[in-house]
Amino acid sequence: xxxxxxxxxxxxxxxxxxxxxxxxxxxxxxxxxxxxxxxxxxxxxxxxxxxxxxxxxxxxxxxxxxxxxxxxxxxxxxxxxxxxxxxxxxxxxxxxxxxxxxxxxxxxxxxxxxxxxxxxxxxxxxxxxxxxxxxxxxxxxxxxxxxxxxxxxxxxxxxxxxxxxxxxxxxxxxxxxxxxxxxxxxxxxxxxxxxxxxxxxx
Length: 202
Hints:
Blueprint: H1 6-23, E1 32-35, E2 46-49, H2 68-84, E3 88-89, E4 97-103, E5 111-112, E6 122-123, E7 150-157, E8 162-170, H3 183-191
Parallel strand pairs: 2-3, 2-4
Antiparallel strand pairs: 1-8, 4-7, 5-6, 7-8
């Protein structure tokens, strides 16, 4: 029988505490969101992914980088949270909600695309380009104005192509890093703010 020494017991306790800290959620005070207060959020039952366009790299530029690992983790985490709230992923047809996301990165990594209309002038880290309207959501900000590492999740009504809800949190996500295992925790914190309260029906 192996007896734990005092130093060994302390080490095991430290490892346990660090593990728990790694799984802890970000304080809700750090999670922010904005939404269209005229929307009845209880009517949504299904969701899908907003089809993003990938711009062609500008001559002389490095082009948008894309991490399938980060993409899978973000989408998997968002889907998991929406399913917990009673929404179902719709693969075919038009869902009630469309989901898009972005990650704020160093502006030095952005590639200018001169063929885009105003408001869509940059290709972000993933090369995503979205063309939905955000007129109904107050305090809308371009992704370039968020702190580096911020994850932004958008929900869009496909019938109007309008952004109806946005949640975000500064999370220091680095799309180039291999260890982004905490993404589900970050997403869970953001999606804990959806649906918004008070839930105001038009």
